[in-house]
Amino acid sequence: MFNLILFGPPGAGKGTQAVKIAEKFGWKHVSTGDILRSEVAQGTPLGLKVKAVMEAGHLVSDELLIEIMESVFVKNSDVKGFVLDGFPRTLKQARELDVMLSKSGQKVTLVLALKVDEHELVGRLLTRALDQGRKDDTEEVIKNRLVQYHNHTKPLIDYYKEQKLFREVYGVGSIEEIFNTLSSTILEHQSIQK
Ligand code: B4P
Questions:
Q1: For 139-187, how does the pLDDT look when each residue is reduced to its tens digit (9 = 90+)?
Q2: What is the mean pLDDT of the chain?
């Protein structure tokens, strides 16, 4: 089983690339952002709890995210692999992910990070605001999301570097070019594992 974490700041292209990777390799795409947005759209108790937090560009609590991911793993015990998009986002989530995977004898296989400079990130998210009208794509909220990334998510780079799981790919260029680089990095990693 291949457990891939697609890593990067908001707007780096994680969601865009995760869909393509999941399709090519036959893996299950799990976007915690999509899961949370769907709860908000349906007005579930969980959605009502997280709506304001998300709209302000803050991180939803680790406890809720861990609960969500536990149920994802239970429901998808038969898949060949996972593309985790947006999870983990804090050190606590990363450590809990290791615990959850170890319950079925699994580990994180590879962390692929998309490297994109901040100016490009803000531009992309503002463009998405025009196309999709996401409430967290305003300039002020984007700034907040980047601060959250620097404070809580960026430290995961060292966590995964220490485990020699971290690989970085340049995330600027055409979607297809970036996808090809990500795919060949995965294939290379698979061949080393065999
Ligand atoms: P997410 O949905 O994960 O938000 P994101 O980081 O902005 O998504 P992503 O990075 O995938 O955007 P993409 O590049 O695809 O999370 C939203 C919120 O949910 C968080 O702020 C938080 O509140 C909450 N949340 C989620 N997970 C959590 C967790 N684990 N813990 C706590 N809270 C959590 O897209 C960006 C834009 O760029 C798109 O418009 C795309 O078309 C464009 N793009 C992509 N590739 C491009 C390229 N190569 N060139 C030009 N544009 C490109």
A1: 999 999 999 999 999 999 999 999 999 999 999 999 999 999 999 999 9
A2: 96
Ligand 1 contact via 93 beta carbon (within 6 Å): yes
Q: Measure the CA–CA gap between 20 and 80, rounded to whole angstroms.
A: 16
The atom of ligand 1 lying closest to the CA of 173 is 49
Burial of 11 (0-12, 13-18, 19+ CB in 10 A): buried
Domain that holds residue 131: 2-193
Determine whether the shortest distance from the Cβ of 178 to ligand 1 is under 6 A: yes
Which one is catalytic: 49, 51, 95, 134?
Answer: 134
Looking at residue 84, the DSSP 8-state letter turns out to be E
Looking at residue 183, what is its pLDDT?
98
Distance from Cα 137 to the centre of ligand 1, integer Å: 10
Catalytic residue at 89? yes
Q: How many domains does the chain have?
A: 1
pTM of the model: 0.94
Q: Under a CB-based contact definition with an 8 Å cutoff, are residues 77 and 71 in contact? A: no
- Percent of the chain residues topping a pLDDT of 70: 100
Q: Residue 185 is part of a domain; what is its CATH number?
A: 3.40.50.300
Ligand 1 in reach of 147 Cβ (< 6 A): no
Question: Structure tokens of 177?
Answer: 């070019």
